[in-house]
Amino acid sequence: MAGVLTESILNMLVNDMRPISMVEDEGFKQMVTTFHPGYTLPSRTHFTKLMEGKYEATFGKLKNALKATKNKIALTTDAWTSVATEAYLGITCHFISDDWELNSFCLTTMPLEERHTGTNIAAWIEQAVERFEIPLSKVVAVVHDNGSNVVLAANILQEKHGGENYVTVSALPPLVRGLLKSTHTVYDTAPVQAFQAAASEETTARWSREVTITDDDPSKQIIAAALDPRFRKLKFLTPEERFSVQNKVQALALQSSRNEEATAASVDNDDTAERTPNRSVSALDSLLGCDSTDSDTGNIASKKRASLTPEHVNMLTFLHCNLKHL
């Protein structure tokens, strides 16, 4: 019975954002004694240890939940200062479950002991998601205020982890065409001319099939380039080739649309979710809420709780925001 009462008091402290020192207040002690005369109220130190243990258990549950979801995740960041003049960075995550329910969790309320530069903020965000083993390729957006340092942090993360930094098949045709064009520049020296001839021969032998159009049938690589916003103007092609590729893309789009209509006509409306998994996934990745936890954390770190260590502020905020969902 004593264990149940102690657990109930701990949950009250977390849910109502009460300071742990409340268990040492005379009025609280009298109330507990009145309700259960035989119960010995544990010390503040004991409740602190219980909170730390509950934090570790809840942290593990959230980590597993984030690993289990296959959908994209959005992050929200909030930087603020407590009444004890301690700076914090709050990071929350949001994703939509396969049952189309919005899930929002507090990842961390991180004490900031270094300068709030864009580089440092980017590193802190990376550190937070790494603790939960969230691959940054899974993060679809980072919502933040318009502070110059936070904007810089987002730009750093975009540059470092954005998909456009990785070579894609669509980059192959303009790259190879550009290389071949450079070998046609006339130089006077024989060694350079010999190198150009060799480079042109080797490049053509290796990549010609991927970057040429035969019988008005462009390669998959050229189709990919036509669909890539970076290369869709197809400036690396001749006007005739460009026209041929654009016609091919339109024909493929029309055929794809007809196939979808045919599939839709043959499947009952009740099976819509199964019939259009790609659209469902796209919506799941896009319809994300972005609430923040700064107000909750501010309450926890208010004047009456200003004696809390930054580590315990993080734990109380984490438990208050997440415990009821896990």
UniProtKB/TrEMBL annotation:
<protein>
    <submittedName>
        <fullName>AC transposase</fullName>
    </submittedName>
</protein>
<keyword id="KW-0539">Nucleus</keyword>
<dbReference type="GO" id="GO:0005634">
    <property type="term" value="C:nucleus"/>
</dbReference>
<keyword id="KW-0862">Zinc</keyword>
<dbReference type="InterPro" id="IPR052035">
    <property type="entry name" value="ZnF_BED_domain_contain"/>
</dbReference>
<keyword id="KW-0479">Metal-binding</keyword>
<dbReference type="InterPro" id="IPR012337">
    <property type="entry name" value="RNaseH-like_sf"/>
</dbReference>
<keyword id="KW-0863">Zinc-finger</keyword>
<dbReference type="GO" id="GO:0008270">
    <property type="term" value="F:zinc ion binding"/>
</dbReference>
<feature type="region of interest" description="Disordered">
    <location>
        <begin position="254"/>
        <end position="288"/>
    </location>
</feature>
